Amino acid sequence: MKTPALSHSLRASGFSLAETVIAVGITASTIVTLVGMIPLSLNTLHRSGVVTAEARITQAIAADYRMREWSEVVQQQQEGGCRDFSFDGQGTRVKQGDASTIFTARVTVSDALPLPGMQQTNPRLKNVQILVTSSPDATAAFTMPENCHKAQTLVAQTDKTAQSPPMASN
After folding, report:
1. For the whole model, what pTM was predicted?
2. For residue 91, is it left (φ>0), alpha (ψ between -120 and 50) or beta?
3. Which of 23, 64, 119, 161 sits at 20 to 30 Å (Cα–Cα) from 70?
């Protein structure tokens, strides 16, 4: 009689074939779902890298134009207003035609719109429009600005101007 009890205890300690098949099925469906998400997450990762680089490029150009001499900004506007700059995949500026060029930025300088409450534009304020594209054919990309990252900033004249005579104090 002890033999049946021994076989009963051995039988209760392991998994049945049905339990094992169900566990493997659940694990397989979870793995397939996770593997299916890899392309989506890689695409999202790539897009976030592009957005970060575009933001870095926009900030660098805006800071560059704010630090320029006012005469350079006005001269660019008078010459037609557009200049192209090249950047690598990290958003670092490189020379025009460099093999590591990924992004191209087109910067246009124009008169700023009148400020609220003003009747005319301020001659000491310029609008700087920045278009950034990662397209290999930048010229074609700039013809369709909706395919580019677009940013605008205002640049004010901060150069020294003629000083007013000192005022007498009492």
Report:
1. 0.71
2. left
3. 119
